[in-house]
């Protein structure tokens, strides 16, 4: 074992946990401030300014902005050796939904709330930056802190924008985490390989010929084509995909007509496709378009389709890095509080980073029914248990140390 690994092996996980717990009240106040003051994707200016000020207090030199957008923050912490650079990422944007909780720190902005735990992610990464700054003389390399905007945007991913801006230059591996409401507070989950799905968005418009509802024979009814397509498109899964693969095709909206006695001219629907296999995903678009056009022709309608990648990559955790995380997490939360995560069909733009370098994305429990913190993500009732924050900080800090002290993510025997 080389000198760098000896230094990392001496890092006291118990001390990291204790220090994280000592920041609990401070983190709770900060997390609730972010919760009360949410900002939508690509609008996180005040959030970015506050993050930067907190990093400056640690003696870091944060850079605000992604491309020509004044949001998002990146800062590097240099250790005492010219070793590798590893990255920790948190997303900072809120969701377009009106909060319906009754907490005193409820969102002050109607129609905007932190309904996915990003307020907690920001807070935990700031606290991890603080702990790592306190131990920088023991770090054989650099840690890059990435506070990413616009994770919820979809079509205009904040992760891809930051990559285009060079945020991964010189970075050997990256870690990210997500608070999760169906995992009890104090517990954590990991998974190697495919973990969260890719996500595509689609739109189909069937164009017919409007007419009176009492004379359908002189009209061309696009609602029939839309109804038929809803059923037909499911055969992309049941008859055109290997049954050993996992694919979900969902219709999210169907809109047609305005009156009960009028056959409309148009029927429009939008939806999503999710899968864990890039090769499977790449073949769906052509089949989707063929099916829409075929159904349209059957009902004498013209079909116009749009198929776009939102998060074209699934979250795929590097096997060696995930083993390293699991071994580190056992020391932090204990074997009894650590489990293997199920496959989740929800998506994350952390996958863009993993398409470039090895990455590990893990889950930290934030659920606590007794405290009213059990609502699902993107619910207007969503909230997190603040007692989960020290767990996430201890995991992020310890894992950053482990990544720096390992060689290509491999664990010393």
Described by strand count, sense and barrel closure, the largest sheet is:
8 strands, mixed
Main CATH class of the largest domain: Alpha Beta
- Reading the helices and strands in chain order gives HHHHEEEHEHEEEEEHHEEEHEEHEHEH
What value does the Rg take, in angstroms? 24 Å
Strands, total number: 16
- Could you tell me the CATH topology label of the largest domain: Aminopeptidase
Task: Give your account of this protein's structure.
The chain has twelve helices and 16 strands. The chain is α/β, with parallel strands linked by helices. It has helices at residues 3-9, 13-22, 24-36, 45-57, 118-134, 158-164, 222-232, 235-238, 278-298, 319-333, 350-354, 389-405; strands spanning 63-66, 69-78, 85-91, 142-148, 171-184, 188-190, 193-196, 198-207, 211-212, 247-255, 262-263, 266-275, 302-311, 315-317, 338-340, 359-367. The termini are close together. The strands form four sheets. The protein has an eight-stranded mixed beta sheet, sandwiched between helices. A four-stranded antiparallel beta sheet has the order 10-12-8-13, covered by helices on one side. It has a two-stranded antiparallel ribbon with strand order 7-14. The longest helix has 21 residues, at 278-298. Residues 1-8 and 407-413 have low confidence and may be disordered. It has two domains: 3-197 and 314-405, Zn peptidases (Aminopeptidase, 3-Layer(aba) Sandwich); 204-311, Alpha-Beta Plaits (2-Layer Sandwich). It is elongated.
Please give a quick description of this structure.
This protein is an alpha/beta fold. It has helices at residues 3-9, 13-22, 24-36, 45-57, 118-134, 158-164, 222-232, 235-238, 278-298, 319-333, 350-354, 389-405, and strands at 63-66, 69-78, 85-91, 142-148, 171-184, 188-190, 193-196, 198-207, 211-212, 247-255, 262-263, 266-275, 302-311, 315-317, 338-340, 359-367. Mean pLDDT is 94; it is low at 1-8 and 407-413.
């Amino acid at each position: 074992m080389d000198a760098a690994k000896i230094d990392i092996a001496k890092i006291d996980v118990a001390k990291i946990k204790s220090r994280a717990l000592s920041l609990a009240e401070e983190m709770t106040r900060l997390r609730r401030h972010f919760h009360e003051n949410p900002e939508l994707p690509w609008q996180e200016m005040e959030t970015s300014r506050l993050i930067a000020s907190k990093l400056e207090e640690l003696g870091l030199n944060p850079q605000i902005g992604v491309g020509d957008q004044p949001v998002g923050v990146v800062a590097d912490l240099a250790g005492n050796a010219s070793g590798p650079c590893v990255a920790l990422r948190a997303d900072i944007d809120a969701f377009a939904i009106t909060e319906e909780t009754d907490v005193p720190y409820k969102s002050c902005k109607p129609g905007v709330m932190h309904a996915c735990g990003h307020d907690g992610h920001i807070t935990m990464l700031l606290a991890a930056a603080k702990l790592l700054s306190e131990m920088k003389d023991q770090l054989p390399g650099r840690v890059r802190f990435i506070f990413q905007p616009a994770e919820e945007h979809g079509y205009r991913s904040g992760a891809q924008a930051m990559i285009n801006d060079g945020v991964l230059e010189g970075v050997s591996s990256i870690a990210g985490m997500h608070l999760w409401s169906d995992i009890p507070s104090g517990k954590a989950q990991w998974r190697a390989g495919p973990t969260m799905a890719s996500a595509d968005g689609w739109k189909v418009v069937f164009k017919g010929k409007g007419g009176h509802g009492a004379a359908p024979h002189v009209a061309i009814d696009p609602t029939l084509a839309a109804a038929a397509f809803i059923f037909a498109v499911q055969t992309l899964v049941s008859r055109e995909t290997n049954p050993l693969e996992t694919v979900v095709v969902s219709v999210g909206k169907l809109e047609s007509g305005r009156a009960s006695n009028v056959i409309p001219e148009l029927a429009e629907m939008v939806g999503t496709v999710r899968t864990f296999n890039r090769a499977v995903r790449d073949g769906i678009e052509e089949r989707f378009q063929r099916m829409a056009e075929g159904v349209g022709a059957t009902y004498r309608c013209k079909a116009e389709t749009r198929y776009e990648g939102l998060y074209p990559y699934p979250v795929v955790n590097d096997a060696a890095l995930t083993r390293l995380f699991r071994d580190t997490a056992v020391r932090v939360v204990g074997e009894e509080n650590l489990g293997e995560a199920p496959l989740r069909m929800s998506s994350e733009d952390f996958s863009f980073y993993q398409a470039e370098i090895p990455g590990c994305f893990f889950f930290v429990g934030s659920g606590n029914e007794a405290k009213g913190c059990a609502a699902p993500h993107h619910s207007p009732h969503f909230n997190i248990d603040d007692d989960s924050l020290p767990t996430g900080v201890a995991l992020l800090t310890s894992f950053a140390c482990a990544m720096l002290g390992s060689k290509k993510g491999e664990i010393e025997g």
